[in-house]
Amino acid sequence: MKFIFFLLLTTATSINSYCQDGFVWNSKKSKIEIPFQLVANLIILPIEINDVKLNMLLDTGAESSMLFSLPENDSIAFTHPKKIMIKGLGSEEPIEALYAAKNNVNISGYESATFPLLLILDQDVNISSRLGVEVNGILNNAFF
């Protein structure tokens, strides 16, 4: 019985050590409180990406964090974006996106300068009208 407990303990420790590889939060806080909106059982988080305030839908099952719309009369700067083609946004055809590996993100005082992000260039991808709340993108599990 002691061997099984030790095995579970070492396995859990090794899994935890690889969860956030390469993603570093800069904060002296041991915990944070994050305000959010609950809309149609979906969590909408206010965050800042590259100094632009955005509302992001939390989707831990999404493969990547992505932006598909910006606040009106606002723009966002990316460093060294790469043009790529992606699938899986409700269309069988691939759509064009920009990938930027190092973005500044601020979530309730926690900051990182290594946040990867996709910018969807297709203006038809938008869920704000369906939810009735401005949503600028999707935040994936890298958030955790």
Task: Report a brief summary of the structure.
The protein contains 2 helices and 8 strands; from the N terminus they run H-E-E-E-E-E-E-E-H-E. The protein is mainly beta and 144 residues long.
Explain how this protein is built.
With 144 residues, this protein is mainly β. It has one domain: Cathepsin D, subunit A, domain 1. It is 14% helix and 36% strand. The chain is built from two helices and eight strands. The protein has a six-stranded mixed beta barrel. 19% of the residues are buried.
Topology:
Blueprint: H1 2-17, E1 37-39, E2 42-49, E3 52-58, E4 66-67, E5 82-86, E6 95-107, E7 110-120, H2 128-131, E8 137-139
Parallel strand pairs: 3-8, 4-7
Antiparallel strand pairs: 1-2, 2-3, 2-6, 4-8, 5-6, 6-7
Unreliable stretches covering 5 or more consecutive residues: 1-23
As a whole number of angstroms, the C-alpha radius of gyration is 17 Å
Q: Any idea what the CATH architecture is?
A: Beta Barrel
Number of helices: 2
Q: How many domains?
A: 1
**What helical percentage do the residues reach?**
10-25%
Strands, total number: 8
Q: Give the structural class.
A: mainly beta
Q: Can you tell me the CATH class? A: Mainly Beta
Give a quick account of the main beta sheet: strands, pairing sense, barrel closure: 6 strands, mixed, barrel
Shape: globular
Side by side, the strands of the main sheet go 2-3-8-4-7-6
What share of residues are in beta strands? 35-45%
CATH superfamily: Acid Proteases
In the CATH hierarchy, the third-tier topology is known as Cathepsin D, subunit A, domain 1
The string of secondary-structure elements, in order, is HEEEEEEEHE
